[in-house]
Amino acid sequence: MVVPRKLLNVTVPSYFMCPISLDLMRDPVTLCTGMTYDRSSIEKWLDEGNLTCPATMQLLDNTSLIPNHTLRRLIQEWCVSNRSNGVERIPTPKVPAQPEEVRAMLEDLRSGINVHHTVLRLRTLVREGDKNRRCAADAGAVQVLVNLLNPPKRCHWDEEEEDETAGTDREWIEITEDTLATIVLISNNEAFRGSLVAGPKQLACICWFLKRGSIESKVAAAVVLESLATGSDARSSLTELEGVTDSLVGLLREKYYPKAVFASLKCLLALCATRKNRIRAVEAGAVPALVEFLPEAETRGMLERALKILELLSSCAEGREAISDHALAIPMLVKLILRASETSTEHAVVILWMVCEYSVNAGTVRDAAVQAGAFTRLLLLLQTECSKRTKQKAVDLLKHLRDIWSQYPCSPGKKALSQIGQF
Fold first, then answer.
1. Is the distance from CB of 364 to CB of 323 less than 8 angstroms?
2. 3-state SS, residue 56
3. Using an 8 Å Cβ cutoff, are 270 and 193 in contact?
4. Phi-psi domain of 167 (left: phi exceeds 0; alpha: psi -120 through 50; beta: other)
5. What is the pLDDT of residue 237?
6. Whole-prediction pTM value?
7. Is CATH 3.30.310.10 what the domain over 96-284 is classified as, yes or no?
8. What angle do CA 194, 199, 200 make, to 5 degrees?
9. Chain CA centroid to CA 379, Å
10. Topology classification of domain 5-85
């Protein structure tokens, strides 16, 4: 805890401070060397592969962390006594999950014992911090939870009903929603990505929630599908399921729910690694959804992902035609050159080059690019320290646009236009 300005007159006892972070300890634990540290600080030290005591540099016989309850109570009492000076009481920390406890829960899930209750217990546990999430992930919790995703006997998969969940087992919906939410919580750990396995029943179950679940369930389903799609073997089978791509494109339009957009972008990016999936995405209306999202992108990461997907889609004829047919696409791509990150600029330039080079309507696209100011922006881009790929595509684009630009009254003249070949 960094002492705020209003507490500068308060003297914090030195033995209440963590030797690593130099902040007031919230969860003091003691190493085998007898030195005490804040749990979060020493765990980070050990996770980085260090096997010594930070203060004494003594080699550790073991990495066990013993809670120092006496010191914690003293710190809490000190906080209470200095409450009038603005010091807040430190809450009593919860004991981290033990591997044995998590393994016992997973065994109950495998055996079908109190499944919903056990899922809720596991969900509560992993909500308490990164340490517990890592513990659950290391124990194989994600795959066990995925294996629980089986459709009920009374689940109506294909019937279009006014109530999208009519005829479906309500208890199953609650259990599966909690299971998906627990998977997402543990998915903050990247170690399991690309290693998940899901059978036809599990995939059908996830896709049902992606199409018909609540917005939270749709997001959770998209996150799980993205993890499955990271493994190359699963990409094709995922999009074979009816409605998957359409549902992901639908999430892209949830502009008031950023988590939905983010989950959709990540999943679509993983799926579009193959040409077959790119065509499916185009057919589902991904191009207009992505183009219309660009002006509303809230973060650089989301913008770059959207442009990366568009670049992948521009590698197929169907994607290029969809981009050239959208009235906003070319002006928006031109506008993004030098206006966002270097990565976003590169994606925008490559997409423009692909459409101008290979689109059936290439002439119309080039004229639209010039009218949007592409010539000037590309010339400015060449004067920056952009990547070799970006520079080469920019030069090629300028050559394509040179004849059109020369017809405009504000053209820089033949001498300036001829200098493009020097790059």
1. no
2. coil
3. no
4. left
5. 64
6. 0.75
7. no
8. 125
9. 34
10. Herpes Virus-1 (3.30.40)
